[in-house]
């Protein structure tokens, strides 16, 4: 049953169908729940937060652009710097690749030659988040005002209020 299903699926999955599916799935990737009131020109920036023991973990999505700085601002405008600002992993490689393979058959003297074309979605956007780690006791109670500075983009403030997020 399963091999028949896989054969049927692979027969339907033409290169055009695969590309359409990849584009549709890429469209499902959206910004994180907290966003600035006004997005800066040149990038879409969003954030999310989780609490782990005595730390606040703030994920910052900047469309793959490098986050230079991320701080929490208190009501008196004093800055709380993160203990760590962890950049995303290296970007995935993408683009067009062409390969040629030669394989031999056993004992009958038959050989086969195959070619293939691989397509990656190596566009300017990639889902990659920077992680800012803050001490919870230093950050204080929510809501938090996160100031993010991304390379080449003006700084933005994002209000992170778990009570208003609807989660």
Q: How do the strands and helices of this protein lay out in sequence?
A:
Layout: H1 2-12, H2 15-28, E1 46-52, E2 55-61, E3 67-73, E4 79-80, E5 84-86, E6 96-104, E7 111-119, E8 129-135, H3 136-139, E9 144-150, E10 156-160
Antiparallel strand pairs: 1-2, 2-8, 3-4, 3-9, 5-8, 6-7, 9-10
Query: Given the helix and strand composition, which structural class is it?
Result: alpha+beta
**How many angstroms does the end-to-end distance come to?**
41 Å
The number of domains is 2
Multimerization state: single chain
If strands are numbered along the chain, what order do they take across the biggest sheet?
1-2-8-5
Shape: globular
Percent of residues in helices comes to 10-25%
Count of DSSP E strands?
10
In short:
Strand 6 and strand 7 (111-119) form a beta hairpin. The chain folds into 2 domains: 1-30, no CATH class; 32-91 and 123-167, Sandwich (Immunoglobulin-like), CATH 2.60.40.
Can you give a write-up of this model?
The chain is α+β, with helices and mostly antiparallel strands. The chain folds into 2 domains: 1-30, no CATH class; 32-91 and 123-167, Immunoglobulin-like, CATH 2.60.40. Helix content is 17%, strand content 38%. The chain has 3 helices and 10 strands, in the order ααββββββββαββ. Strands 1-2-8-5 form a 4-stranded antiparallel beta sheet. The chain has a 4-stranded antiparallel beta sheet with strand order 4-3-9-10, with no helix packed on it.
């Amino acid at each position: 049953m399963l091999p028949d299903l896989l054969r049927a699926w692979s027969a339907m999955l033409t290169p055009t169908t695969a590309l359409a599916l990849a584009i549709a799935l890429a469209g499902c990737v959206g910004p994180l729940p907290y966003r600035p009131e006004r997005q800066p020109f040149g990038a879409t920036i969003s954030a999310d937060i989780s609490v782990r023991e005595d730390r606040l973990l703030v994920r910052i999505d900047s469309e793959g652009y490098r986050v230079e700085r991320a701080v929490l601002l208190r009501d008196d405008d004093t800055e709380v710097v993160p203990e760590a600002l962890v950049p995303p992993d290296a970007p995935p490689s993408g683009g067009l690749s062409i390969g040629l393979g030669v394989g031999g058959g056993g004992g009958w003297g038959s050989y086969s030659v195959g070619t293939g074309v691989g397509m990656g979605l190596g566009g300017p956007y990639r889902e990659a988040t920077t992680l800012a780690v803050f001490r919870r006791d230093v950050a204080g109670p929510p809501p938090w005002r996160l100031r993010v500075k991304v390379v080449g983009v003006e700084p933005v403030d994002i209000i992170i209020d778990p009570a208003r997020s609807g989660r």
